[in-house]
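In full, the data.
>
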Amino acid sequence: MVKFCSGDFKPESVPPGTKHLDPLLTKASTSPPAQVPAKGLDDRLFYIYTSGTTGMPKAAIVVHSRYYRIAAFGYYAYRMTPNDIIYNCLPLYHSAGNIMGAGQCVIHGLTVVIRKKFSASRFWDDCVKYKCTIIQYIGEICRYLLNQPVREAEKHHQVRLAIGNGLRPTIWEDFTQRFQIKQIGEFYGATECNCSIANLDGKVGACGFNSRILPNVYPIRLVKVNEDTMELIRKENGLCITCRPGEPGLLVGRINQEDPLRRFDGYVNENATNKKIAYNVFQKGDQAYLSGDVLVMDELGYMYFKDRSGDTFRWRGENVSTTEVEGILSHILSKTDVAVYGVEVPGVEGKAGMAAIADPEARLDPNVLYLEMQKVLPPYARPIFLRLLPQVDTTGTFKIQKTRLQRESYNPHQTSDRLYFLDVKLGKYLPVDECVFERLQAGKVSL
């Protein structure tokens, strides 16, 4: 593998094993290639590793047509122009920064300002300095920006459009109003998926749209699943059941390898690829891509992100959405990082809710928080356990990472963080020490 660098590098500062790209470009021919390669749009371009939010990252295959489709989708869907300047502070090893962002320069000739690492404190200063008209966000970036003190630069930028995914509905309007962003280009689509959707008209909270009048124009569906196991629920004839408006369902897309929009190239690992394909979904003999994400469609066809596979758990006979509880708790705590997940308690049916909350200065009073919870969360959705820690783990794409937290659960032997459990009879949170943990494990504590 050859590495290249570009920009204001002096010859002596170029890292070992790296070539400076600028002199090579200066010497390169400006004439188009004499021959078109024998292979083209279906060739593998590179691999992009998934973020690993729900497990180990997987190498997703990106072919040339997929790269072009993602970049073109953003350009035409959100009416970009060659005069736009995009501010891109996302990691270039994922598709949002690499394809949706830098791809606008490669495919459409836009200017793309690339910052090596996201900085909430420098974000708007950079946008003003480089006269950016479009910004990119992903995961929790918008919440981090809202959590910053008001600064002069946020009033003097020229940004008209913010594109990305992961803007929580609870902060959507706060973000657009404070920073005076005219359009939010929220979209849904994993690197490898064939069922991308987009919010084109700024419908608050929606991650996309699909016509209910002409649903077969774009063959994606929300289908019923068992939300505990994520198994597809099927009719007597073996086909899947399409969800009605308001019913949560798994987003799936019909696979057609002959159609660049419908193909699924999968992963380098064949077993990982096979796990994402279902058969006999729309009709006998067909194949469909399983997104792993649960969405809800309204009467008009707008879709709203609900949960990623594994992010719903059952407690007291009710389904609890971790993303909804996270959004509410984060709002109560002034945009603080919160991870919510279900944990098993011996002898208790279902999973108890647990919230890991960033509390770097150890100032949070769990019982003051509980008083606020009672106003906005039903009893079954209030976390039974709390973990107060210096910071919550995030992936490289600013998504909350729960794998380690869920594994360590409420075990004081696994962490030195402050742990609490909700004593429902007393109506307050009590510390979890080794003695309390043993009693919980023995089923001697009433939850």
About this structure: The mean pLDDT is 88. The first strand starts at residue 3 and ends at 5.
